[in-house]
Amino acid sequence: MNRPLDSVPAGGSAAPAAVQVVPQRDGSVRDPGLSRLAATVERLREELAQAHSDAAGRSLIELAVGMLVERLQCGPTEASVQLASLSEQAGVPVLDFAADLLNQAASDRISAVARTFVASSADGTDPVALRLRTAQAHAIAAPDTEAAARSMLEHALRPLGAGAVAIWAAHPDQSLSLRGSAGFGPAEAQRWRHVPPGVFTPARHALDQRATAAIPELAGASLPSIGQHEFTGGRLAVPAGLGGRLIGVLEICWHDALPEQTRPLQRQVEALAELAAATLETWTDDEADAGAADTEFDALRRLTAGVLDPCLILCLAPDSTEVPLEFVVRDVNPAFVDFAGRPTNTVLGARLLEAYPLAAEPGGLAVKVEHVYATGEPFRTQRMRLAAMVDGVPLHTHGQVSISRHGHHVLVIWRLEDGTTPVARLLQHAQRLGRIGGFEENLRDRHIAWNDTLFELYGLPPTAQPIPLEHLGEHAHPDDRDTIDRFLRTLLHHQRPASTAFRLQRPDGVTRHIRVVAEPVHDPDRGVRIVRGAYQDVSAQHWTEVALAATRDQLAHSEQQAAERSRLTLQLQHAIMPPTRGPLDLPDLHVAVRYRPAEKDHLVGGDWYDALTLPSGNVLLCVGDVAGHGIDAATGMVALRNALRGLAATGAGPAQLLSWLNSVTHHLTDNVTATAVCGLYEPATRRLRWARAGHPPPVLLRKGRAETLPQIGGILLGALDHADYEEHETQLDVGDTLVMFTDGLIERRDQSVHASLETLVALTEKASRPAQSAHAALDATLDHLLRYSPADTDDDTCLIGICVDEGPTGEAE
């Protein structure tokens, strides 16, 4: 009868248990107890592997079921039944069918590999795509990156002949950390847990080149790496990234030479690298790093608490992932005093370059901090330039600086060259330049303190006795003594802050205009013990105000003249082109006009138009724009418009009219340039002859489709003594609409003229109203163009719409 070894008969002692020795074939003996224990361990290991395999298989099948739920719009139970039925019809296992289904639906690297490998290999192994999907499922179900690395090696890399794999995480300081590995011994993995910056490994080479590093034999490459003594054969280091961002490296090791880098092998390795990147994104050591950082931070705080020099404890900013790195002031020691004179709370918690933006200058504090953090090498100097910006004023000082790295933190210690902070020196300079003198008067012991500037304001030597407030009236102009009395009554009797201005009469006979500001300092019993304040010499300001008062009338007169000039210019423009004008009915044409002046009255422009019947029966249609604004532009507009009217009576064509008008502009006006479009419409043939001088071409709207007329040649008016212009002919039909405009309708600061014309064409098509009458549609089109104009230059705009009617309706201007 067998019984447990630890059972003891009642009332007796345990007898030595007999040990049965089992002879082996080789003559050795084996302990049956150890054999049973080894068998139990092996069985548990197989059960654990099977559990992992089952979990990975379930993950793969659940992904396929989820895809069927989305595609078939059914519930999970029905989708599971459908998956089993489809795999049975296909004659393949459910796991294989689920992997194939995912490969067909997905657009990742594994599905790309699946499209290449559509069948099993010649020796009967599983398809590549199924192995990759299995590795992916195991990685998803893995509890950490280490388990994910083992899964990749077992299911995807051993069939490729690989013996080990390492997953490296890349850090902003150019260092690497081993997040997961398989195939190496525990001691080797621990030894390569962290690779500092500057160590050129295959993984670092892949990151620097942002491409796969293929090493035929590691033994001859002189590159240190994990497992370099055991795996001396080929190596592949593949950058691992997500969304265009590299976050690590997948390193694969072979005992023998590197296999041939075929395209299918490369695609498998790229798919595994993408899986490694997803694993790094999911399983990180941030919590452990945070715990270590907190321990380091507490130790640094205790260390710096006893340092008598100012200390800053910096840490990497949370969102700092690229060079240059950004640091945050995590803490300061009790002895910290900002050399720029700011309160500590304005520096604590701020980014280093926000608190000290001038530290980014070449060789500055920020550059040294980044170097120390990246290399770990301490930095010390006997003299460094420290700079800060306070309210837009740059402040500089020099001091001894020491910078050192402590784990995840950087410690900065400085000692200024002198005890006077730059802010104190800045205040002294500001008082001197602003002629401000400060004082403090003790009303009980009559002790008075003045600074040097105040002695200068009073015209007294520095050895003279300061003057008490109660004697201030004796040194003021007699007419200002009542003002001084009110000031002292408010300050000393009502015990409130007070200020006033008076004329100070100095002993040397000079009178200065002074402004004094003072406030009482209350005791706990609400009595006034001390008065503090400042005097400022405002003589220059006073005489400036006198000079300003003398010119105010002249300024008002000039403003009145400018307003009158602008009013006359506006009246002149409105006399020629009123902002609103009723429609014109010309032979075969219906003309409507819209004019939008500039938003600012002083920007009265030179836009003009004209539409009238000539003695020949033809209709003159023109629009133009004189460069500039104001009275000169308005008078130039009147001259050109009237000149064109007179020239058109000769019966000449549009090109000849513009050539003559160019000569008029060049010779008869004072430095005026302009653009224009001139057209002659023949009612009998509905033919339009037109020419342009540097002006945007008209837009033709026909049957709901809009287009610009050709960009024929023609220089702007007034630029040259003589210029020739091209003439173009356009045949119009009944119902056509012609839109002529000035550049104020289309000009944009961020677009070319060509792009603005395309926008206007599209806007014209949207504005067409086929269901309305021709006249109503024309008015609606012009209103729409003016309302939704994309222009942003605040220029005046002239817009003319010409609609071709069925027959002549009379002659009118």
Automatic annotation (TrEMBL):
Gene3D superfamilies: 3.30.450.40, PAS domain, PPM-type phosphatase domain, Winged helix-like DNA-binding domain superfamily/Winged helix DNA-binding domain
Family annotation (CDD domains): PAS
Domain called ANTAR: residue spans: 41-102
Alphabetical list of PROSITE patterns matching this protein: ANTAR, PAC
Record carries keyword Transcription regulation: yes
Keywords, sorted A to Z: Hydrolase, Transcription, Transcription regulation
Family annotation (SMART domains): ANTAR (SM01012), PP2C_SIG (SM00331)
Example GO molecular function: phosphatase activity
Record-annotated PAC domain positions: 498-550
Name of the protein described by the UniProt record: Antitermination regulator
Native species: Kitasatospora aureofaciens
Lineage: Bacteria, Bacillati, Actinomycetota, Actinomycetes, Kitasatosporales
